[in-house]
Amino acid sequence: MPAYKRILLKLSGEALMGDDAYGINRATIVRMVREIQDVTRLGCEVAVVIGGGNIFRGVAGGAVGMDRATADYMGMLATVMNALALADTMRQEGMTARVMSAIAIEQVVEPYVRPKALQYLEEGKAVIFAAGTGNPFFTTDTAAALRGAEIGAEIVLKATKVDGVYTADPRTDRSATRYSTISFDEAIARNLQVLDATAFALCRDQNLPIRVFSIFKAGALERVVMGEDEGTLVHV
Ligand code: UDP
Question: pTM of whole model > 0.90?
Protein backbone atom coordinates (compact mmCIF):
# COMPACT_ATOMS: atom_id res chain seq x y z
CA MET A 1 0.00 0.00 0.00
CA PRO A 2 1.36 3.43 -0.90
CA ALA A 3 1.83 5.82 2.00
CA TYR A 4 0.08 8.58 0.06
CA LYS A 5 -3.14 8.66 -1.93
CA ARG A 6 -2.19 11.83 -3.81
CA ILE A 7 1.18 13.44 -4.39
CA LEU A 8 2.45 16.59 -6.03
CA LEU A 9 5.72 15.89 -7.79
CA LYS A 10 7.90 18.88 -8.63
CA LEU A 11 10.22 18.03 -11.51
CA SER A 12 12.73 20.67 -12.46
CA GLY A 13 13.47 21.30 -16.10
CA GLU A 14 16.94 19.93 -15.40
CA ALA A 15 15.42 16.55 -14.63
CA LEU A 16 14.56 16.21 -18.33
CA MET A 17 17.97 17.30 -19.54
CA GLY A 18 20.01 14.23 -18.62
CA ASP A 19 23.66 14.91 -19.41
CA ASP A 20 22.81 17.31 -22.21
CA ALA A 21 23.57 21.02 -21.89
CA TYR A 22 19.96 22.07 -22.43
CA GLY A 23 16.62 20.85 -23.73
CA ILE A 24 15.01 17.46 -23.36
CA ASN A 25 16.93 14.22 -23.43
CA ARG A 26 14.83 11.41 -24.86
CA ALA A 27 16.17 8.55 -22.75
CA THR A 28 15.94 10.67 -19.60
CA ILE A 29 12.33 11.74 -20.09
CA VAL A 30 11.31 8.14 -20.79
CA ARG A 31 13.03 7.06 -17.59
CA MET A 32 11.24 9.79 -15.60
CA VAL A 33 7.89 8.73 -17.02
CA ARG A 34 8.49 5.07 -16.15
CA GLU A 35 9.30 6.03 -12.58
CA ILE A 36 6.02 7.98 -12.43
CA GLN A 37 4.10 5.16 -14.08
CA ASP A 38 5.34 2.74 -11.41
CA VAL A 39 3.76 4.81 -8.66
CA THR A 40 0.47 5.32 -10.50
CA ARG A 41 0.29 1.52 -10.78
CA LEU A 42 0.47 1.38 -7.00
CA GLY A 43 -2.76 3.39 -6.96
CA CYS A 44 -1.20 6.72 -6.07
CA GLU A 45 -2.68 9.79 -7.77
CA VAL A 46 0.06 11.88 -9.34
CA ALA A 47 0.09 15.57 -10.18
CA VAL A 48 3.27 17.02 -11.63
CA VAL A 49 4.53 20.58 -11.69
CA ILE A 50 7.22 20.83 -14.33
CA GLY A 51 9.93 23.50 -14.41
CA GLY A 52 11.45 25.16 -17.41
CA GLY A 53 15.06 25.82 -16.50
CA ASN A 54 16.33 23.42 -19.18
CA ILE A 55 14.86 25.72 -21.83
CA PHE A 56 14.63 29.18 -20.31
CA ARG A 57 15.12 30.82 -16.95
CA GLY A 58 13.88 34.33 -16.36
CA VAL A 59 16.91 35.42 -14.39
CA ALA A 60 19.64 33.81 -16.50
CA GLY A 61 22.01 34.54 -19.40
CA GLY A 62 19.51 34.70 -22.24
CA ALA A 63 17.40 37.14 -20.25
CA VAL A 64 20.17 39.70 -19.63
CA GLY A 65 18.85 43.16 -20.35
CA MET A 66 15.30 41.93 -20.71
CA ASP A 67 12.37 43.21 -18.77
CA ARG A 68 12.06 40.73 -15.89
CA ALA A 69 8.35 40.11 -16.30
CA THR A 70 8.75 39.43 -20.02
CA ALA A 71 11.61 37.04 -19.35
CA ASP A 72 9.51 35.28 -16.73
CA TYR A 73 6.65 34.82 -19.19
CA MET A 74 9.15 33.21 -21.54
CA GLY A 75 10.17 30.93 -18.67
CA MET A 76 6.55 29.97 -18.09
CA LEU A 77 6.11 29.18 -21.78
CA ALA A 78 9.18 26.95 -21.54
CA THR A 79 7.40 24.93 -18.85
CA VAL A 80 4.50 24.44 -21.28
CA MET A 81 6.88 22.86 -23.81
CA ASN A 82 8.23 20.53 -21.14
CA ALA A 83 4.69 19.67 -20.05
CA LEU A 84 3.72 18.76 -23.61
CA ALA A 85 6.81 16.59 -23.99
CA LEU A 86 6.13 14.90 -20.66
CA ALA A 87 2.47 14.23 -21.45
CA ASP A 88 3.31 12.88 -24.87
CA THR A 89 5.93 10.57 -23.43
CA MET A 90 3.40 9.41 -20.86
CA ARG A 91 0.98 8.66 -23.68
CA GLN A 92 3.62 6.66 -25.53
CA GLU A 93 4.30 4.67 -22.39
CA GLY A 94 0.60 3.84 -22.01
CA MET A 95 -0.38 6.37 -19.35
CA THR A 96 -3.25 8.84 -19.56
CA ALA A 97 -2.14 12.38 -18.85
CA ARG A 98 -3.67 15.84 -18.99
CA VAL A 99 -1.81 19.13 -19.20
CA MET A 100 -3.36 22.19 -17.57
CA SER A 101 -1.86 25.61 -18.03
CA ALA A 102 -1.94 28.56 -15.66
CA ILE A 103 -1.73 30.81 -18.73
CA ALA A 104 -4.50 30.58 -21.34
CA ILE A 105 -3.20 29.00 -24.56
CA GLU A 106 -6.36 27.13 -25.32
CA GLN A 107 -5.42 25.84 -28.77
CA VAL A 108 -2.49 24.04 -27.18
CA VAL A 109 -3.52 22.94 -23.70
CA GLU A 110 -6.55 23.30 -21.52
CA PRO A 111 -6.57 25.97 -18.84
CA TYR A 112 -6.09 25.09 -15.20
CA VAL A 113 -9.47 24.62 -13.57
CA ARG A 114 -9.25 23.16 -10.11
CA PRO A 115 -12.39 20.96 -10.14
CA LYS A 116 -11.32 19.54 -13.49
CA ALA A 117 -7.88 18.74 -12.14
CA LEU A 118 -9.46 16.99 -9.16
CA GLN A 119 -11.71 15.01 -11.48
CA TYR A 120 -8.78 13.84 -13.61
CA LEU A 121 -6.86 12.78 -10.54
CA GLU A 122 -9.84 10.82 -9.23
CA GLU A 123 -10.04 9.11 -12.62
CA GLY A 124 -6.45 8.00 -12.23
CA LYS A 125 -5.04 10.32 -14.88
CA ALA A 126 -1.71 12.03 -14.35
CA VAL A 127 -2.14 15.80 -14.31
CA ILE A 128 0.71 18.04 -15.41
CA PHE A 129 0.51 21.64 -14.31
CA ALA A 130 2.19 23.94 -16.81
CA ALA A 131 3.08 27.65 -16.80
CA GLY A 132 3.91 27.70 -13.11
CA THR A 133 1.66 29.99 -11.11
CA GLY A 134 0.91 32.06 -14.21
CA ASN A 135 2.62 35.04 -12.63
CA PRO A 136 6.07 36.53 -13.17
CA PHE A 137 8.43 36.86 -10.18
CA PHE A 138 7.47 33.39 -9.00
CA THR A 139 8.98 29.97 -9.60
CA THR A 140 7.70 26.51 -10.32
CA ASP A 141 8.62 25.59 -6.73
CA THR A 142 5.93 28.03 -5.63
CA ALA A 143 3.55 26.57 -8.21
CA ALA A 144 4.23 23.14 -6.68
CA ALA A 145 3.41 24.36 -3.18
CA LEU A 146 0.32 26.21 -4.43
CA ARG A 147 -1.10 23.40 -6.56
CA GLY A 148 -0.14 20.86 -3.91
CA ALA A 149 -2.21 22.74 -1.36
CA GLU A 150 -5.08 23.30 -3.81
CA ILE A 151 -5.49 19.69 -4.82
CA GLY A 152 -5.08 18.39 -1.28
CA ALA A 153 -1.87 16.51 -2.01
CA GLU A 154 -0.55 14.87 1.13
CA ILE A 155 3.03 15.76 0.28
CA VAL A 156 5.14 17.75 -2.14
CA LEU A 157 7.93 15.65 -3.59
CA LYS A 158 10.80 17.74 -4.81
CA ALA A 159 12.86 15.75 -7.27
CA THR A 160 16.40 17.08 -7.48
CA LYS A 161 19.86 15.98 -8.51
CA VAL A 162 20.95 15.72 -4.86
CA ASP A 163 19.33 12.96 -2.80
CA GLY A 164 18.06 15.10 0.04
CA VAL A 165 18.86 18.05 2.25
CA TYR A 166 22.43 18.13 3.55
CA THR A 167 24.18 19.97 6.36
CA ALA A 168 26.34 21.58 3.65
CA ASP A 169 26.72 21.23 -0.11
CA PRO A 170 27.79 17.57 -0.56
CA ARG A 171 29.40 18.40 -3.91
CA THR A 172 31.93 20.70 -2.27
CA ASP A 173 32.00 19.59 1.38
CA ARG A 174 32.87 15.95 1.99
CA SER A 175 31.87 16.10 5.65
CA ALA A 176 28.29 17.05 4.71
CA THR A 177 25.64 14.65 5.99
CA ARG A 178 22.06 14.15 4.88
CA TYR A 179 19.12 14.91 7.15
CA SER A 180 16.62 12.06 7.27
CA THR A 181 13.99 14.46 8.63
CA ILE A 182 14.11 18.12 9.54
CA SER A 183 11.46 20.57 10.70
CA PHE A 184 10.53 23.68 8.74
CA ASP A 185 11.77 25.82 11.62
CA GLU A 186 15.14 24.09 11.79
CA ALA A 187 15.58 24.33 8.03
CA ILE A 188 14.99 28.09 8.32
CA ALA A 189 17.28 28.45 11.32
CA ARG A 190 20.04 26.61 9.47
CA ASN A 191 19.38 28.57 6.30
CA LEU A 192 18.97 25.37 4.25
CA GLN A 193 17.62 25.93 0.77
CA VAL A 194 14.85 23.33 0.39
CA LEU A 195 12.42 25.19 -1.85
CA ASP A 196 12.51 28.88 -2.62
CA ALA A 197 11.33 31.07 0.26
CA THR A 198 7.78 31.70 -1.02
CA ALA A 199 7.16 28.01 -1.68
CA PHE A 200 8.66 27.05 1.65
CA ALA A 201 6.47 29.51 3.57
CA LEU A 202 3.35 28.28 1.80
CA CYS A 203 4.08 24.63 2.62
CA ARG A 204 4.81 25.47 6.24
CA ASP A 205 1.65 27.55 6.65
CA GLN A 206 -0.47 24.83 5.05
CA ASN A 207 1.21 22.05 7.02
CA LEU A 208 2.17 20.41 3.73
CA PRO A 209 5.29 18.26 4.17
CA ILE A 210 8.02 18.22 1.54
CA ARG A 211 10.28 15.34 0.66
CA VAL A 212 13.45 16.12 -1.24
CA PHE A 213 14.92 13.16 -3.10
CA SER A 214 16.92 12.28 -6.19
CA ILE A 215 14.86 11.37 -9.23
CA PHE A 216 18.04 10.05 -10.79
CA LYS A 217 18.22 7.14 -8.33
CA ALA A 218 16.33 4.24 -9.87
CA GLY A 219 13.19 3.38 -7.91
CA ALA A 220 13.58 6.33 -5.52
CA LEU A 221 10.16 7.79 -6.33
CA GLU A 222 8.49 4.47 -5.63
CA ARG A 223 10.35 4.08 -2.35
CA VAL A 224 9.24 7.58 -1.35
CA VAL A 225 5.63 6.79 -2.21
CA MET A 226 5.86 3.58 -0.20
CA GLY A 227 6.89 5.70 2.78
CA GLU A 228 10.48 4.49 2.93
CA ASP A 229 13.32 6.58 4.27
CA GLU A 230 14.57 8.09 1.03
CA GLY A 231 15.96 11.61 0.80
CA THR A 232 14.86 14.13 3.43
CA LEU A 233 11.43 14.75 4.89
CA VAL A 234 10.74 18.37 5.86
CA HIS A 235 7.84 18.53 8.29
CA VAL A 236 6.09 20.90 10.68
N1 UDP B 1 8.31 31.30 -13.90
C2 UDP B 1 7.53 32.39 -13.50
N3 UDP B 1 6.46 32.19 -12.69
C4 UDP B 1 6.10 30.96 -12.23
C5 UDP B 1 6.91 29.85 -12.59
C6 UDP B 1 8.00 30.05 -13.43
O7 UDP B 1 7.82 33.51 -13.88
O8 UDP B 1 5.11 30.84 -11.49
C9 UDP B 1 9.43 31.51 -14.85
C10 UDP B 1 10.70 32.03 -14.22
O11 UDP B 1 11.31 32.90 -15.14
C12 UDP B 1 11.53 30.77 -14.06
C13 UDP B 1 11.14 29.97 -15.28
O14 UDP B 1 9.77 30.28 -15.47
O15 UDP B 1 12.91 31.07 -14.04
C16 UDP B 1 11.34 28.49 -15.18
O17 UDP B 1 10.85 28.01 -13.95
P18 UDP B 1 11.83 27.43 -12.81
O19 UDP B 1 13.09 28.24 -12.75
O20 UDP B 1 11.06 27.30 -11.55
O21 UDP B 1 12.16 26.01 -13.43
P22 UDP B 1 13.10 24.83 -12.87
O23 UDP B 1 14.26 25.45 -12.17
O24 UDP B 1 12.29 24.02 -11.93
O25 UDP B 1 13.46 24.06 -14.10
Answer: yes
